[in-house]
Amino acid sequence: MTPASDRRAAEALLAFWADAGVEALYADEAIDRLAEGAERLKARARPAPPPPPPTPIRPARPGVPNIDIGAALDQAQAMAAAANSIEALAEAIAAFEGCPLRYEGARQSVFYRGALDAPVMVIGEGPGADEDSVGQPFVGRAGKLLDKMLGAAGLTDRVFITNTVFWRPPGNRTPTPAEQAVCAPFVERAVALVKPRMLLLAGGASAKAVLKRDEGILAMRGRWFEWKSTDGALDLPAMPTLHPAFLLRQPAAKKKAWADLLTLTERLDRQGRPA
């Protein structure tokens, strides 16, 4: 084309863009969007870098060596398996050195309270300041509320109460999955020794650790799940419910926890009736 025809073509193109509403140019040169898209696709296709190696649990108190989670878990399994009674299991827990929480300011181990032949095992998250002082789980304000609710549901002498960890987390924080993992063999051995008919899991941290699920407590509460022991020998129904400490902060949620207790009690009594 001649320069004049080029000019006319450019003027026609500009007129077309003006009619289409184009008022400004944002780059001096054309951009190949197809090439850009191809580069992004190549980047997505590249393999992701490998995840970093797991970080060992690091006790907060200076002078305490790092704890190897694998070795601590092996030790917990051996000590739990050797305990043939709840009293022996309590002694094994008190002697266990594989959970770093015992080095982070806890006064003593906190294992259980309740009936040794209870048909219901209540598993909470971890001991708080009152529990750390007394040496029993659920003895503070949340524990008093739990006892009141259990009594109203007719479960006062029918529960064995424990936690997923046996030492108070500093600042009453939620126990970490690693801390729960090294204590899990003792919890599982307690289930084997007490032989409850069902589990009541108090709080999201307990429900997630025991059931190995990721849902929040509001999604899990009031529903029945099946808990299985590591070796597959035990299989029990388990119901998550709201933690009493949460109910103290949110009193309106008490009716949900009460409904959970009624559901559990109805199933428990139904199992106990003659066919």
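[next item in queue]
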Amino acid sequence: MGRYSRLRTIRRMDPVRDCAEILRLMSQYEFPWDYRQGVSVAFLRDFGVPRISVLLDRTQEFERNGQKRYDDTVLIGYEMAADGFDSERGRAAARHLNRIHGRYRIPNEDYLYVLATTVVGPKRWIDRFGWRPLCRQEVQALAEVGRSMGRMMGIESVPATYAEFEELLDAYEAEMFAPAPANRRVATATLRTMAGWYPSPLRPLVARFALALLDEPLLRALGFTPQPRWLRTLAVRAVRARSYGVRLLPARPGWLPSRPRPRSYPFGYRLDDLGPHWAQNRPVEPLPDEAPGAADRPGAAPRRAPEGLTRP
């Protein structure tokens, strides 16, 4: 397979109908490492908002179970998209995610922002460091993935286009980014988890390298000082050098997708393993389009109720 064969395939696809398949090709074949880095930066951006970080800090999930918390977030997103967002697998993952969030009072605008980080974060990283830029179909597919997730989570006023997601993210951060002790604690716990993927002698350097790649508004909100200019330059050049090397490699073969390899579940996982332990005991609610009366709303398609739930 030629280096640009999948790009030609993606350009022939419908980004609305095929958004889950385009995401699979992007995240498992074209940009597996870059996509993960973009998602990781998206996690950190959430912590720059005190209202979000205070809630996360209160749960102590990042401090006590940082690796599991990271793995669970990645795996729930993977489960939602793996067989398509309208598959039973995808809808079961969405119900489970809603069950976890149902314990907390989270404003709709915070849901929108976190959703926007997962759409904008990967694109901005790939634009900056990827071995090639994203094509129009890939960018639109990212927005459609965000719209699908927002619909399944019952989030209101989800943007319709990538440009609207980006505008929402920038406006929200301009208003809501602010330093707070909880920001620093949650971010430090997350960076500690990420640095833990490397040998002990390298961990301090890995953490500083990661900070050198973050923008100054985010660093200020997280309570970190910018790294020296020489380290920022070195970090950017090192990641870009990697992308130049990747561009020269053959395409990843179809039999070798890059799938999540969660360190917390070396022997596999079930959906109920993901998230806090208390979530397993909470009732599962129907998705917004599965609730009674949803089929009567304009434009709504009838859905089968999840197992264990019946409609009156």
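[queue empty]
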